[in-house]
Amino acid sequence: MDLEDVGARGNRSWLYSIVVLFLVSLSLAFGNFVYTNHVDNSSNQQWCSLVSTLDDAYKQNPPQTATGQKVALEIYNLRVNFGCP
Fold first, then answer.
1. Roughly what angle, to the nearest 10 degrees, separates helices 3-46 and 48-60?
2. Beta-carbon count within 10 A of 55 CB
3. Residues 33-81: pLDDT tens digits?
4. What is the pTM for the complete model shown?
5. What number of other Cβ atoms are within 10 A of residue 17's Cβ?
């Protein structure tokens, strides 16, 4: 084994280290994305029963004031955005 072989192997080790570091970082970023998405969806679904109940109540007895109508519209928008039944 001569000095050139050691130098080439050292350069390859450095490149492999960078590639492995990049792949680990990419895996962690993807895992973080999946976990955050799951937590966000779970949080939204926990509000569904309340939002659905309020929206159903506003549909049965529509509010008469402008403020009440705004609240009813926002409750409806929440129901749609959360994907509640």
1. 40
2. 19
3. 999 888 877 777 788 889 999 999 999 999 999 999 999 999 999 999 8
4. 0.57
5. 10
